Amino acid sequence: SSAAAATDQPSWWEKNSGPNMIDIHSGQEFADALRQANDSLVIVDFFGTWCASCRALYPKICKLAEEHPEILFLKVNFDENKSLCKSLNVKVLPYFHLYRGEDGLLDSFSCSLAKLQILKDAIVKHNGA
């Protein structure tokens, strides 16, 4: 049936995900990914599968990941990681954290498609360090 065929398609938050985009399914995975990134810039995209703003922004995130292979992008599904998001004080979506190694959290902000420049500016600011 066509319904069955549709479910074989990747969900919007899985499409066009590059090699430097990692899905985070637990607080442990999050901690491990940050540790393994060493001194690379890490951008964490907190999203909800039901969040229209997240969905609209997602293709741009994929494009940024493609343009910046040196940056690690972590995708944190809010519903799968509620306790993690709560501990990180993530209350609105889409939300972003930028990390780097021993410096820890460099920046955090809410960002929508209309405010994509905030994320681009943050990359310019923190990526050259």
From TrEMBL:
The keyword Transmembrane helix does not apply. It comes from the Eukaryota. The keyword Mitochondrion does not apply. InterPro entries: Thioredoxin-like_sf, Thioredoxin_CS, Thioredoxin_domain. Pfam families: Thioredoxin. GO terms for cellular component: chloroplast. SUPFAM superfamilies: Thioredoxin-like. CDD domains: TRX_family. Residues 1-129 form the Thioredoxin domain. One of its GO terms (biological process) is cell redox homeostasis. Keywords: Redox-active center. Belongs to the thioredoxin family. This is Thioredoxin domain-containing protein. It comes from Genlisea aurea.
